[in-house]
Amino acid sequence: MNRLKELRSVAVDFFEATQETIRNLNQSERELFDHVVKNMDEVKFWSIQKFASEWLVSTTTIFRFTQKLGFSGYSDFINSLLVTSHSQQDSAVPDVVTGRDYGEAYLKNAMEAVRVMSPQRIQSVMEKLVLRPDIYILTDDNTHSIGQYCERLFIALGFHAYFPETAYQIQNLANHIRSQDMIIALSYTGEDAMLIDVVQRIFLRERPYLLSITRADNNPLESLSDTNFYIFADEIRLNGMDLTSSLPMAMILELLIYEYLTRSRTQEEAAREEAAQS
User: What's the predicted TM-score (pTM) here?
Assistant: First the structure.
């Protein structure tokens, strides 16, 4: 316990430490990162030699990987995992999925998406929402149902929210989007050509605020965005259909909604108190 307290005083939570640097990883480094995230309770006990042998790479490659994540070295990396791993144990996986490997991975992916939500990015979105912009929701084919849900959430808050579902509707609404509006773009890969083309054509005329939710890599949609939240998911395809979970994406949208509700109520209460005192 004393060792843990000592670590907490010097080490930084792994997800907090890597929330910005992850975007600089190449594909092979990204695979290493995913392995660390999904096997944190094992990796935290590995020596650098063990890590290197598991991935058939040199210890120099692993050392450079940890530095690219923003750590001073391998020991700094491991200390961060130890602190983060303990935090995860405090939020135990529910008993209903105990012993079911995919069930645990499924919940871990969702929890990790929430853990890496940067307060600065949340604040940026809140500052835009307080201006009550019109909201336009764009998706790829695989996130269509999440787009419908997103529209319902914002309409419930009193926003003018629009989710065009056909090419004609998308083209029509795109011509009405203004710089003071907000676009929410949902695409796990962030590489959907039609979605990116629509955004780029809008940007030729106006420059609305673009919030996107994608996987954690350098993808075209992320690079166009004012604010991007990234998610983790096991990519699953069956009979040509994409069955990758949309749960992490829905959770991020819900948490943004709840944050906005909380702030709105706090401001309303403060205004009532000020009015009562005057």
Answer: 0.66
